[in-house]
Design a protein that fits this description.
Length: 427
């Protein structure tokens, strides 16, 4: 027969450690949202409630261990068994309540990131299903027996005054697992459609897909429900179900907070981010210089081809020091090209660098551009340069002049609140 036993030390250690870690990460998230991104929302309130109930659940688990969970029932007094059963009753509905707020927080976060109508409709449907399930789960846990106090005063497994425990817990856990998978899978098709380099797309999918770990813990918890509901020695077989419940709920909180922590890291450890970016750039420069002599120093100097006769050259292509000093309009329309990734934002390979990148530029008159005498490029009365009419490469993205090299700063066709939602501040 499957055993759900574990030592009291493991119960204390797991419940306390995971609650503390998720609490620290939650604090980092809230600091990022309130003081870095300044974009706190309803999802932050819900995840805070989720952690609050998780902490109360941790208290219930520790009190169960203190009252006798993890030891054989026949070694305990009747008072100990009653006390442990009372804390177990509280643990069950606290667990369901914490899951409810955590899942709603994740879905609300999705709504802030992805504005597509079809996706939002699906999110609202999933939220409605989770709400109905959660209300049933919490009420079925609280009113498992009639009267409610009969739950901790009775030690019978098939008490006629109580709902069938095994069937009720299995049904609730099954729905919980299904909704876990639905929440994790929901954003992946949207991320796949984003027009970002493949490496950035994989990173985004990994961040949102880490929720599959929570699904694994939900399944493990389901497995260890059976020993509690079917064994006469409930105190001995309860620990693992409690442990996996604590792990599942707190990992869910961590998964909800993970996408928002980039801004906190940038704010707290800017030198670390800069050093990592410099290291990545230097490796890329080294690879580029060794691959082709004709494209030597291509990142430092790229010629932007306007037409056959007139060329505009920028030193340190797209570097903030150049554009912030000279461009007051802060806009440049260009081919979808990212020099760091050497690939288009739509995932395709760009034209060779030496052939130039055809662009249409719009800068303030402080931008230096000296045409030939017979140039067809005319200076408009407004003080802006306008490219001549004729075939040109139509660009598909507009980027800010001050351009970060971080993955989450790439131009993606989603609502621009994505950056602040994830806690990224564009300087």
């Amino acid at each position: 027969m499957l055993s759900g036993h574990s030592s009291p030390a493991a119960i204390y250690g797991t419940a306390i450690a995971f609650t503390v870690v998720s609490g620290i990460v939650l604090i980092a998230r809230l600091l990022t949202r309130f003081f870095v991104a300044r974009q706190a929302g309803l999802d932050d309130a819900f995840i805070s409630l989720g952690w609050f109930f998780s902490a109360l659940m941790g208290v219930a688990i520790c009190n169960q261990a203190y009252s006798g969970m993890g030891v054989h029932m026949w070694t305990l007094t009747m008072e100990d068994i009653t006390t442990m059963s009372l804390w177990f009753w509280a643990f069950v509905w606290l667990y369901y309540t914490g899951l409810f707020f955590t899942k709603l927080s994740i879905l609300l976060q999705y709504l802030r990131i992805f504005p597509q109508d079809g996706f939002r409709r699906i999110c609202f449907i999933v939220m409605a299903l989770i709400s109905v399930w959660s209300i049933w789960s919490v009420f079925s846990a609280i009113f498992m027996c009639r009267p409610v106090s009969h739950f901790w005063h009775s030690i019978s497994l098939n008490d006629p005054q109580c709902l069938p425990r095994l069937n009720t817990w299995y049904a609730n856990s099954a729905v919980n697992i299904v909704t876990d998978f639905a929440i994790v899978i929901l954003p992946l098709p949207m991320i796949k459609k984003l027009e970002v380099p493949p490496r950035q797309k994989m990173l985004l999918m990994a961040i949102f897909g880490v929720g599959f770990i929570t699904c694994l813990f939900s399944i493990l918890r389901l497995v260890f429900i059976y020993p509690i509901a079917s064994s006469a020695d409930m105190t001995w077989n309860s620990p693992l179900a409690n442990i996996w419940s604590a792990v599942e709920l707190n990992i869910g909180i961590l998964c909800s907070c993970a996408p928002t922590l980039k801004g906190a890291v940038q704010k707290g450890f800017p030198k670390l981010i800069e050093s990592l970016g410099s290291l990545r750039t230097s490796r890329k420069d080294s690879a580029d210089s060794g691959s082709s002599g004709s494209t030597q120093n291509s990142i430092d100097k790229i010629k932007l081809k306007l037409d056959d006769k007139h060329k505009l050259t920028f030193s340190s292509f797209f570097q903030r020091s150049m554009l912030s000093a000279r461009a007051t309009e802060k806009s440049i329309s260009r081919s979808d090209y990212d020099e760091e990734e050497a690939t288009g934002f739509d995932g395709t390979s760009p034209a060779p660098i030496e052939s130039g990148i055809e662009v249409v530029t719009s800068f303030a008159q402080t931008t230096e551009m000296i045409p030939d005498q017979d140039s067809s490029v005319s200076r408009a009365n407004s003080g802006k340069w306008t490219a001549p009419e004729g075939p040109k490469t139509v660009v598909s993205s507009t980027i800010a002049a001050e351009r970060s090299d971080s993955w989450d700063d790439a131009p993606i066709p989603v609502d621009q609140s994505l950056f602040k939602t994830l806690g990224v501040v564009r300087k």
